[in-house]
Amino acid sequence: MPDLSGIVKAYDIRGVVGEQLDEALVRDFGAAFALLVKPETPSVVIGHDMRDSSPGLAAAFAEGVTSQGLDVVSIGLCSTDELYFASGSLNMPGAMFTASHNPAEYNGIKMCRAGAAPVGQDSGLSEIRDTVEQGVPEFQGQRGSVTERDVLGDYAGYLRGLVDLSGSRPLKVVVDAGNGMGGHTVPTVFDGLPIEIVPMYFELDGTFPNHEANPLDPKNIVDLQAKVRETGADAGVAFDGDADRCFVVDERGEPVSPSAITALVAVRELAKEPGGTVIHNLITSKGVPEIVAEHGGNPVRTRVGHSFIKAEMARTGAIFGGEHSAHYYFRDFWRADTGMLAALHVLAALGEQDGPLSSLTQDFSRYAASGEINSTVDDQVARMLAVKDAYAGKSGAEIDELDGLTVQLPGGAWFNLRPSNTEPLLRLNVEAADRAAVEALTDDVLGLVRG
Question: Does residue 119 sit within a domain?
C-alpha cells in the first residue's frame, strides 16, 4: 500500500514529477476523484497550467475519470480561477493541474466539487487518498468520453460584467505574469478596456526563467517595480504561476499590502450591498475589520486557508473575503478566489478618481506590519508554549488560539504565531502602530521562538 501523506496536502496534491507524482498515480487519483463525485454529476471539467508535465498529467487524470464512467470536459490551458469559473458556470466538479509558484520540477492537482466548492482534507481529499492507497476498484460499465471546450472568452466576459470600467480614465498598467498563466488570461480579460497594458514575462514557460512566480516574495517584484517607475505607469500588477493571486504596486513602485487591497475591495462590495458580511483571516491587518465596520459591514474573522474562508463565506452568506497571502474570494464568483477580479476592482477604483494609487490606498493602510517571518525550530509545541507563557503574564494581554497563538497587547499591537503543517517552522506575523513598535515586538517574540 503506497503512503501518499507526503504529497496529499491540506488543500491539494503536490509533489516532484517523476519522483512523487507520475501519470500512473495521477490516473488513480482521477479514478478516485470520479468515485467521490459520481453520485453528484455525470461530468468533470479539467484544466492545466503551462508546466511541461501538465498536459500529460491532465490527460492521465482524465483517463482515470472516464475509466469510472464519467465524461470529461477538457478546457486545456487555463488559470486556476478560470477552472473555478468553468466549475461554477458549467456546474461540474473540476481538477486543475498546477503547482502554483513551486519550482519547475513540481506539479499538483487542485480539485473542487460542482460550483467550485473546495475539496480539502475534511471535504473529500482524505477519501481520495484512502481510495488510491487501498487500490481503486475496477468499473465494469461503459467508459466516459472526453470533449474539448474553450471557456477563456466566457471567463473574461463574466469578470468584466462584475466590474464596470466603462467610466474609468485611461490607465497605464504594468503586468508581470511571471511566465505563468496570467500571460494567457490577461490579454483576453483586458481586451477593450481603457487600460494600456505594459506586459512583462507573458511567455508561458514552466521553467520560470526570469523569476519565481511568487509575488509575495519581495525579490520577485523588483523587475515590476522598476518597470512601473521607468514607464510612468499608474500601477503594477503581478500574478503567481497559476494566476489565482495578484499583488499590486503603486505608481511609485511601492507594494500595496494585500490587507489594503482587501479593505478597498470590501468597501466597493459593501457599496453594492450595504450591511454585507466580509470575511478576513486572522493575519490580515486589524485595519480590515475596522474599515469594514466603518462602512456598515459585518467583519468576520477566520482561520488561514481557503477551505476555512470558503466554508465561512457559505455559512454567513458573505459577499467577499480576503487573506494576507493575496487570495481574494467573491460570492459572485462561487465564493472562489480570483486575483484577476480583485485587480479589476483596484483598477476601477483608481480610474474613477483623479489621484494616484498611493493616495487611494493610503486610506486603507493604517498600521505597520512585519510580513511573515519563518523560524526553523526543533519542537513547535514547546516553542509555542514558551511564547504563550511569556505573554500570559503581561498586563492587559489577550490570548486566543483560533489558529496558532494570537496575542493582542495594550495599545493595539498584536502578533500571531502559527506552526507550518508541512515543515518544522513557526510563522510569525506582527502588526503595530509604527515600524519601530513592529521591530521591537518582533525582536521580543523571535527571541523566545529561537531561544
Answer: yes
Side-chain-side CA neighbours of residue 169 (13 Å)? 9
- Beta bridge partners, 376, equal 425
Contacts of 84 (CB under 8 A, 6+ apart): 94, 112, 116, 244, 333, 334, 336, 337, 338
Q: Same structural domain for residues 158 and 174?
A: yes
Q: Which residue has the cell 466590474?
A: 163
Respond yes or no: is residue 43 known to be catalytic.
Answer: no
Residue 192: which CATH number?
A: 3.40.120.10
Identify the active-site residue in 67, 79, 100, 168: 100
Q: What pLDDT, on the 0 to 100 scale, is given for residue 424?
A: 87
Mean pLDDT of 335-360: 98
**Dihedral sign for Cα atoms in the order 184, 223, 107, 114:** negative
pTM of the model: 0.96
239, 180 Cβ separation under 8 angstroms: yes
Average pLDDT for residues 111-139, to the nearest whole number?
Answer: 95
C-beta separation of 331 from 279 below 8 A: no
Domain that holds residue 76: 13-150
For residue 48, the cross-strand partners are 77, 97
Rounded to whole angstroms, how far apart are CA atoms 58 and 180? 17
**What was the pLDDT predicted at 51?**
98
Quote the number of domains for the chain.
3
Tell me, yes or no, whether 7 lies in a domain.
no
**How sure is the predictor about 305, in pLDDT bands with cuts at 50, 70 and 90?**
confident
